[in-house]
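input
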Amino acid sequence: MQTPADPQDRHEYPSHWEADVVLRDGGTARIRPITVDDADRLVSFYEQVSDESKYYRFFAPYPRLSAKDVHRFTHHDFVDRVGLAATIGGEFIATVRYDRIGPAGTPASAPADEAEVAFLVQDAHQGRGVASALLEHIAAVARERGIRRFAAEVLPANTKMIKVFMDAGYTQKRSFEDGVVRLEFDLEPTDRSLAVQRAREQRAEARSVRRLLAPGSVAVIGVGRTPGGVGRSVLGNLREAGFTGRLHAVNRAFPDDLKEVDGVPAHRSVRDIDGPVDLAVVAVPAERVPEVVTECGEHGVQGLVVLAAGYAESGPDGRERQRALVRQARTYGMRIIGPNAFGIINTADDVRLNASLAPEMPRPGRIGLFAQSGAIGIALLSRLHRRGGGVTGTTGVSTFVSSGNRADVSGNDVLQYWYDDPETDVVLMYLESIGNPRKFTRLARRTGAAKPLVVVQGAGQAPPGHAVRATRLPHATVSALLRQAGVIRVDTITELVDAGLLLARQPLPAGPRVTILGNSESLGLLTYDRCLAEGLRPARPLDLTTRATAGDFHRALSQALADESCDAVVVTAIPTIGEGAVGDAELAEALRSAAEEVPGKPVLVVHVELGGLAEALSAAGRTAPSAGATAPVTGSGAHPPPLSASLERGDPHRPAERLPTAESERLPTAGSERLPAAVTAGAEASSVTPPRPPKTPTPHLYSRLIPAYPAAERAVRALAEAVKYAQWRREAAEPGKVPEYDDVDERGAAELIGGLLERGEGLTIGVEETCRLLGKYGIGVHRALPAPSPGAAVDAARDLGYPVALKATAPHLRHRADLGGVRLDLADEEQLRRAYDELSELYGPPEELRPVVQRMAPRGVDTVVRAVIDPAAGAVVSFGLAGAASQLLGDMAHRLVPVTDRDATSLVRSIRTAPLLFGWRGSAPVDTPALEELLLRVSRLVDDHPEVVAVTLEPVVVARQGVSVLGATVRLAPPPARDDLGPRTLPAY
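output
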């Protein structure tokens, strides 16, 4: 950190303004305040700016800065005069400053709320989005210092700078006078400015990942002189994959006369490489990594894959080593995969990158795969290619990232890349933790609207070394919020692959109606039961009997798909024996041809492995056609291809299709896959090696692929997830609205909150203040009057009106009607006094019971409504039934704020005990529209006032008409910082 020494500076150096940002081209830069120590850097920077850019900045020729200029531009009070610099390698590449001005345009101090702003960007870095990033950060600084409006004067010919201001999305006013364009704009974020900022964030972060996954040249640093070792292995993997760019082997221990290693140019240092290096794979011990990073940064390397361990996973010393690594890499504008990474893979024909420890390249396909753990990444790659003993058949990967400690590049960054990657149709992610839930749910919602996102979420903590706020929400709550954002949330990597295969190969179902047909009655009934358990609507299974021929399957499937009451078909199949038994290949062709006749509905197969089927699967893998084959091997001496293999293999003379989804949407199937090579069926995940694809492009030989599952529960679970995702897609296409209420007094609530917060940093406000605050948002709370004596109870009842309830509010009895601390329907003074005496006799004197009297509310269903602001995930509204249902069973539903009318409707219906609200077992349905309105009002309160950090309404009695809030607590505190509303930044270290 740099500390200003000028005694006139009015504030300490604001280190919280320092930030790393991703630029438009995917590189990074450091933004920080300019101090008195930067005089030499400023002069050097200015000397590298062209005369034209200097003219645009000062409106006159200005070849050099005077000593007075340097003093002015490096001495700031960090209040009325602020300067920021963007740096790479410690040197300035751009600057921005503001000066507070008064109404006459002269220098001023607070409370003046306007400032003049000016930029200067080195010509070599123009067009990289540096000025846009600086504008976001200087605007955030200005808002913090009480400045609400910027003014800028720009020459008309300076079109680039005018565009920076005009494209920012702020509310603007533009004028032209004396040959100068004057721009004035408010700094309060608008919907458009946030949209612009997030679109720039997506493009920049996607390009930063694309630079890693599609490099033109790769250097492997730490290549051993003899076979073996990590570096030599990675170099071999890159060669065997057929990497299309330039390869370099680097090791400082190479002899001076060594020119090549395995046919790859050898160098003692990255500095010795003639030409650019886009990606460096670092395979040296952790203690040598800083030296390597320096060499890479000075040579202009764009990104690093750090395989070395010994960082945050190893303890406090390693955590500090990791922080230093990230800071060092960002100094040079480089991004990092790792450390402790397994590596990255890109199967695209024009890249063919295997910069990983995977010994062979996975088959190309349409699935993007992310795993923090290398071991889990290996298991996922293996499962996607394994036959037998798991999901049968093959599928392919577009790109694979195993991030290790994810010190820099995270799942959020890769998700930004996959969002608009044309080669990826389905995203599978194994996340040990979610470091920034607020951002992840935002990105997931946007990605899920375009392509399926399937996630296995661990219960781990944020990555060691990250300076991010940890969520305080329970694991189950975070999972519920992910589902709200469109994430297909599964529990195991088996379910991850099961769902991914279905979504990559089949269209989305239009609804939950399922037809089951097959040649096994018992397997059909088992599938039927699982459909019911998963909330699907299956028809009674159609038993074709074990005598069914391939033609019978074809006709049955064709009829089922043509039936308008069917949304999806599950085919159950068991092997048959004896004369006339249907062959696997024949059956597979019958199912595939029937499915292609009606391509808009998904088809799944549940098959049972008996006898030699597993051997046949293995044999089929070993005798799979080579790249040049035009037809499978047949004949009396060859094993027939098994059902599961046949279902995956399309007609070699039919081109690939892209299948329509529900509601006429288009969800691509897994395209561009090559023919399968040998895979050992039934092997453990750790011993199965993905097949090596041919090095030259081959025509796509798959049409519609039908996924096959070895168990009914796995197939049905995958289908159920597809049904729920399709429903979310349809609803996301027409999002709900946040309704406006005329009786909401937002300003009055803000004044009340401000006055209450003057008492302290964080407090639970009293009953009267709680009722007043909730009343500002149209939320009425039934009065509860204290009753410290029987006489006081009688007076309270007379004031409220009979019938009344008498409640003990001691902490151990509050909301515990099961303990007997509540007496209801007390119709007169006699009953009230008797109840008071009973409670005192059972539970102690009034000072321990803290009794209150409350007017009886209409009978109904007791519920609880809560809202909380989590520092990482944001504001969350929760709903459930009061009592054991929510406390013991955890039957609560959750939605992110702001809650829309559609969110409120689904929130009420999401809990398992929701039938109690809708007339279960003949009871009267209650007023759920009134309940939904209450949820919307609570959401509006915490959204408008982030100082309201917690709200609990319990119980909320939902009657046949209306709702009654019988208890309420509100906690106020200074709101947590909203990093999603501030300027773009990378996680701090």
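quick obs: Confidence is low (pLDDT under 50) at residues 1-9, 387-393, 610-646, 648-703.
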